[in-house]
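User: Quick one: structure for sequence A, then sequence B.

Assistant: Sequence A:
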Amino acid sequence: MKLNARQVDTSKPREKAYKLSDGAGLYLEVVPSGSRYWRMKYRFNGKEKRMAFGVYPTVTLAQARALRDEAKKKLAEGIDPSTAKKEEKLVRDVQLNNTFQSVALEWHATRAGRWSEGYASDILEAFKKDIFPFIGQQPINEIKPLVLLNVLKRMESRGATEKAKKVRQRCSEVFRYAIVTGRAEYNPAADLTSAMAGHESNHYPFLTVEELPDFFKALSGYTGSPLVILAARLLILTGVRTGELRGAFWSEFDLDKAIWEIPIERMKMKRPHLVPLSTYALDVVKQIKVMTGQYPLVFPGRNDPRKTMSEASINQVFKRVGYTGKVTGHGFRHTMSTILHEEGFNTAWIETQLAHVDKNAIRGTYNHAQYLEGRREMMQWYADYIVSLANSSLLPLSKKA
């Protein structure tokens, strides 16, 4: 006999759970706590199974019957209604977590362990600033090429053509990740190269030896942030990458031994890096410590000391002293390499100082500290030479014996 609304509404809990049958497999299960659950018993492929339809009174008797009838139709079609329900829930969950932002963050988390901390942070910062505000909440499988192109064009319009190129590449990786994880079928970023302005660059702009005195003269006249100026000087004297410098912690420095040890997680090539500090570099570090020694970070952000100095800070200084397009922080690595090679220093010392992956299979097996004393001598010579240029007298390179 079928249930009526009054029987369902007046059902009371007992010492043990019991069932009130409505027919065709549907029943109301009343448990000792007083909760009442709609369930359906059925057989599929010879096995007895059960599925839940919700809790009364949230799900009424009429609604429970409609759900039962829907399940019966699936059974008639040879479909297990319980399995179908789970698959439908999975699809709904995927759709709810299918925005570009959620997929991008998931992709980033899977890749971050392979990158240096600074590089991973820079990628995430670029997404948060230039991509998420515009398409972050859109379903990733609905984003069209023109929509993404317009977002990237915003970056190009402010002159950030190189950054737009890199962000497009990262967006393309996010879409490929979405495809292989079943949340998209098409990569709209892949075909945008021809529609973008592009970036013409001879790698990173750098200065020649002849140009350095005028540059240092211009830099000495800058009246902006003293911390950023010191950061630029330390960058020039050590040859580290800009991200490695900005992300530095005081715990990495041993001032007594004049050594800076950058841990593996912060290095682009995923190898720890020892940086010998010349007397001039050590003096710069000590000046910085007076300013920021109370923080964990050597170069804390201006507005939030828990974050690193802005990515653009050092290059912005170079622009303000009149060197827009002529030099970048990274360009000083090229300048250092050129000067040291022309001076005749050991190539292995130079490549190790710049934390390059050594392409020589035998030499590449050396420990990263193997050339430390040689590099210490080399970097002291380099610092002496750079300081001589900064003192506005262009001295000829003295040949090593």
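Sequence B:
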Amino acid sequence: MKIDENATIAVIGLGYVGLPLAVEFGKQRKVLGFDINTARIAELQAGTDGTLEVTPEDLQAAAQLNFSADPQDLKDCQVFIVTVPTPVDQANRPDMTPLVKASETVGRAMPQGALVIYESTVYPGATEEICVPVLERLSGKRFNVDFFCGYSPERINPGDKVNTLTKIKKIISGSTPEVADAVDGLYASIIVAGTHKASSLKVAEAAKVIENTQRDLNIALVNELSVIFERLGIDTLEVLEAAGSKWNFLPFRPGLVGGHCIGVDPYYLTHKAEEVGYHPQVILAGRRINDNMARYVARNTLRLMLKNGMDVPRCRIGVLGITFKENCPDIRNSKVVDMVREFEAWGANVVVCDPWASAQDVQHEYGLSLAGISAQEPVDALVVAVGHQQFRDATLSELRSFCRSEQPVLADVKSLFDRHEAASAGFTVFRL
């Protein structure tokens, strides 16, 4: 199989994954960036990216990239790259709805000989078990006869300006060896870090889902250690720094595990494992630990507030940060929200501040309002939940000026501040 150099590539889904991909291909060949969100299309056509992953200059440099929300425009394309979200539902079961809907849209539009490449994170076998039947049903075409598939999992790290799309090695695979070669050639044209060719779609799917499962388990381990060390009266960071003096100790830190990947992908693997009759133990244990860390932080903050004689229902708690990671506007699967809900359940008045997040998105997604925290509207406790640079740059005296209590509590989730200096500034300190 050979991809025509003049073939138009359609990128389906223009979020954190799809847009950078569309931009890079758009610097070299004809690309149609497609998204059902008309507001997103209008924003990109105006030359701006609200996710901050792509600069206006990069958008302008992608001279052959056009945007559309009209499915009819997809009929002029020959290659389709699907980059839609793959979330979990309230019961942590894979929600394949966006992937199925995208496959239906592609199936209605794809011509004879089309190549459909999936980048969305899924469980091993999902492309052939879920997506291919949809493509066949909507197109009336036969898999590996009239159309072909590839799988090349995304490795985007939102907010990372160093490890960007072209600098991360790309896993690729195809539904036949010839298709794999074609997919490899396509991505090799933009990925300077090179590619790794997997032997099958399933291998590529499995490789992606275990990347984040491994990281999830490593963070779960240090989170559990943090819980143990707190009971022993030992500072976790000091322990990790001491252990880190050995050459092969892995430098993981405790924290809240949210976002679109690490807190979600393991559930895709465990779902498939249970389908084939195996109940995962280690993976789900790690998920339980990480999913409970936000409430653990909240309850320790409340415990110290009560110990300091505060009447929690009459207190204001300031939470600094709601995005799932630092220096990034991405609020998907934010575990800070779980912390806020716990504070609210105790009757506290919670004020959330985040200079990176969109107030409109936070209100729409979580029903929370963003506000400022200042000496004019002081709080009784502060939770530094996200390590945004603005928070790292704050001084302890500045943070102390935001508090009205004689013994305010500082929950330093990311260990941004020296705990001894924080105590000298008048804070009762908790940190993971």
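The chain is about 40% helix and 10% strand. The two ends are 53 Å apart (CA to CA).

User: Thanks, that's what I needed.
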